[in-house]
Every structure is written in structure tokens, then in C-alpha cells.
Design brief:
Layout: H1 2-30, H2 38-56, E1 60-65, H3 69-78, E2 84-92, E3 98-100, H4 104-113, E4 120-122, H5 128-135, H6 138-155, E5 159-162, H7 172-188, E6 192-197, H8 224-230, E7 233-236, H9 254-265, E8 273-278, E9 281-287, E10 290-296, H10 298-305, E11 313-315, E12 320-327, E13 330-335, H11 339-351, E14 356-360, H12 368-378
Parallel strand pairs: 1-2, 1-14, 2-4, 4-5, 5-6, 6-7, 7-8, 8-14
Antiparallel strand pairs: 2-3, 9-10, 9-13, 11-12, 12-13
Helix pairs in contact: 1-6, 6-7, 11-12
Length: 398
């Protein structure tokens, strides 16, 4: 029995290795230069038009997708209101091989609507060791860039969004270099490269500022200025302000988002920035054994709001709604977003003259968001004046 199991495991490892080597060889062969054909020229022209349409959209409205039926339904119903859809369905391995695929139903829905697809590529499980192994190997970096170029061409993606997270601070310069290499390749092919970044609030790390406005280890590895020069746009993941490791509070409080944006806008042109908007809320449950927390979709929150005696409150500092209720000995506290708080977030986008916003994720949203977003797109608002010297480097800034 043990011998049989050994053989099965050995065959599985060999098969996985064989397919990885086959994919690498196929990608490297596909990278060889070719003579342009009329069909290729037509494809290049279509890609250039799509790229121009995306980059000139105001707001540039990107919506993230994670595979489920509710997300697909939302995509089908609102594709015409989107600039980009970003499925989170690719991962880059330690050896630089990129694996994954966009679900066929998503591809078909997007194509019918003429909606460009910009998938996300992540380090699996935001595993720091996998990201480090890839970044510290020049060959793995080169392989990853080749895979991204090949897959984008094969699947007709408009480009990619890099979403590597929990990167080792020691790999900060290596990640910046990888972003620059990937951007150069995408631009050479006429495609776009964007990046999702965890917010920073200062150049210092460890940061001694107040806990809520402190650069943490997830944000510290991002060199905003250098990355901002390389990519076409940058998404500030302005959510998880409060989480399962903090006391109750908003997922994306107004003052917190503004502080994150202020840091970013001093290092990256505003017309390259997208504000992250969460479609989820969070519940904290105080029990005799401690505090439990979980994220909530709009469909989770609605029945809680309908409970007898529950009354929504408004926090003026964070410009977000919340409520609490007791269930036996448990105290439940819920923070979420509604029509009013969505208006406040989109007002930041307009007043700060940002390129747009990126919302996480389809299928979890309050249906009122679509009305708010449509009204915001139709109603220009007085804009804040540009800061002089926004793009001028400052000593010690990142």
C-alpha cells in the first residue's frame, strides 16, 4: 500500500512538473517575433481604441469580480455602466508560472457588452514566501512577465492588474523593478498595466502615528512614487480600515480614506489614482469568550436592519452608518455603507480629480450604489485646485 501511494505521488509530481515545463516552453516559443498580418493590424487598432476609451473614461469605473452566481448576475445587469471588469482569478507561482483563467460566462458577458477585461494576478493566498521566491529570481521575474504577455495576447485582455500583497519589506525594490518590467512589456504590446496597493500614510515604517493612520507592514513595501511612474493607474485599496483584528468601526471611514489619498496624491498624479470602494460591511459579536468578526454582504445586512428595535446611526466623523443589537448575551455591532455614505465616497473621487474608483466586489453591493454612481457621473462638481509641485520629488519621500 505504501509503495502504491509513493508511486501515485511520484507520478503526480512528475505530471505537474511536465505540464509546467510544457507551458514554459510554449510561452517562450510564442514570444518569438512574428511578421504582422492584416488580421494582427486590425486587432492592434481595436486594442488601441479600447485602451484610449478606458484611459479617457471619467470616472474610470472598475469593478472586481470573484467567481459566484451573484457576481455574474450583477455583471450581466450593469456591464454597460462599467469601464473595466477585474476578475481575481490568476496567480503567479514561485517559479514565475502564471496560472488561472477567466470563467467562460464572464468572458462571454463582457464581450457581448464590449467591456474590457483586466484580470488580477496575485501571489497565492498572499503568501509572502511565494512572492519572495519569484521576486528574488531574475529568471522567474522574466518568466512571469512572459506569461502575462502571452496570456493577455491569447485571451485579448486589455492588460493586467498586479495584486501581490503581504510582500516582505526586504523585497520592496525588487517588487518595484518587477512592476517596471511588467509595465514596459505591456506598453510595448499596446496594453495596460495597473496595480492595487495597500494604503500608506507616511514614509516611516515602523510608523509611530496614531494606530488608525499608521503605515503597516502590508503597505510599507509599496514605493508609491516609483510604481506610480510605471503603471497606467493605481488602485488604493481603501478598505479594511477596521477588520477582524480591530475594535468595531467602518470598513472605509471618510477621514481615513482622505488621509490615505492625501499621501498617495503627493506622490502619484491624481489622474492615475482610483479610490477603492468596498461593497461589504462588517459585524463584530461580543461574547463571553471574546469578540468574533465577519464580513457581510448587502443581502446579509438587510435582514439585520429589519430586526425589531434596530435603528441605524450615522457617524459624522467617518461618514458611515452603523447599528447594534443584542441577541441573548451577545452584543452585535455592524458597520456598513448605504446610499448616503456611497455619495460621500464618490464625492471624494470628484473633488480630488481622481481618475475614478474600483469597487470590491460585484454581487455583494447595495443596489442603490448603481443609482448613486450614475448620478455622480452626470453631475460635475466644483473641483479642488491642483497642488503645485504634486509631481516634484521630495527628499526622503517614497
Amino acid at each position: 500500500m505504501a509503495t502504491t501511494l509513493f508511486r501515485v505521488k511520484h507520478i503526480a509530481r512528475f505530471t505537474s512538473f511536465f505540464f509546467a515545463m510544457f507551458a514554459i516552453g510554449f510561452v517562450e516559443a510564442a514570444e518569438q517575433p512574428r511578421t504582422a498580418s492584416p488580421a494582427k493590424s486590425k486587432e492592434t487598432t481595436a486594442l488601441a481604441r479600447a485602451r484610449l476609451r478606458v484611459m479617457s473614461a471619467r470616472p474610470l469605473a472598475m469593478y472586481y469580480y470573484s467567481d459566484d452566481s451573484r457576481g455574474l448576475k450583477s455583471l450581466a445587469e450593469h456591464a454597460a455602466e462599467m469601464t473595466l471588469v477585474g476578475p481575481q482569478c490568476f496567480k503567479v507561482e514561485a517559479d514565475g508560472v502564471v496560472r488561472g483563467e477567466v470563467p467562460q460566462a464572464v468572458t462571454e458577458t463582457a464581450r457581448r457588452a464590449g467591456l474590457p477585461i483586466m484580470p488580477l494576478v496575485v501571489n497565492p493566498g498572499f503568501d509572502r514566501s511565494i512572492a519572495s521566491a519569484m521576486l528574488r529570481s531574475p529568471k522567474a521575474q522574466e518568466r512571469a512577465v512572459s506569461f502575462l504577455a502571452y496570456l493577455a495576447r491569447r485571451e485579448n485582455f486589455i492588460g493586467w492588474q498586479l495584486d501581490l500583497e503581504y510582500i516582505d519589506l526586504a523585497d520592496k525594490a525588487l517588487y518595484t523593478k518587477f512592476v517596471q518590467r511588467a509595465a514596459a512589456r505591456m506598453h510595448r504590446d499596446g496594453r495596460l498595466l495597473s496595480i492595487a496597493v495597500v494604503p500608506r500614510f507616511s514614509d516611516a515604517y515602523p510608523d509611530t502615528r496614531a494606530a488608525e493612520f499608521r503605515t503597516g507592514e502590508w503597505g510599507a513595501p509599496f514605493d508609491f512614487r516609483a510604481i506610480g511612474r510605471a503603471v497606467d493607474f493605481m488602485v488604493l485599496m481603501t478598505y479594511d480600515h477596521h477588520s477582524n483584528s480591530t475594535p468595531p468601526g467602518p470598513v472605509a471611514g471618510h477621514a481615513w480614506m482622505k488621509a490615505a489619498l492625501d499621501y498617495a496624491a503627493r506622490r502619484v498624479p491624481a489622474e492615475k489614482l482610483l479610490l477603492g470602494i468596498p461593497f461589504y460591511g462588517r459585524e463584530w459579536v461580543e461574547t463571553s469568550g471574546g469578540v468574533l468578526s465577519r464580513s457581510l454582504t448587502h443581502d446579509d445586512i438587510s435582514p439585520l436592519l429589519d430586526r425589531p428595535g434596530v435603528e441605524a446611526q450615522w457617524d459624522e466623523r467617518w461618514r458611515a452608518p452603523w447599528f447594534e443589537f443584542r441577541d441573548g448575551t451577545e452584543l452585535h455591532t455592524v458597520w456598513y455603507d448605504d446610499e448616503r455614505s456611497y455619495k460621500e465616497k464618490l464625492r471624494i473621487v470628484r473633488r480630488s480629480r481622481l481618475a475614478g474608483f474600483a469597487a470590491w466586489r460585484l454581487g455583494t453591493e447595495d443596489p442603490h450604489f448603481w443609482t448613486v454612481a450614475a448620478e455622480a457621473a452626470r453631475k460635475p462638481e466644483a473641483r479642488a485646485p491642483r497642488r503645485s509641485g504634486t509631481h516634484r520629488p521630495r527628499v526622503g519621500s517614497q
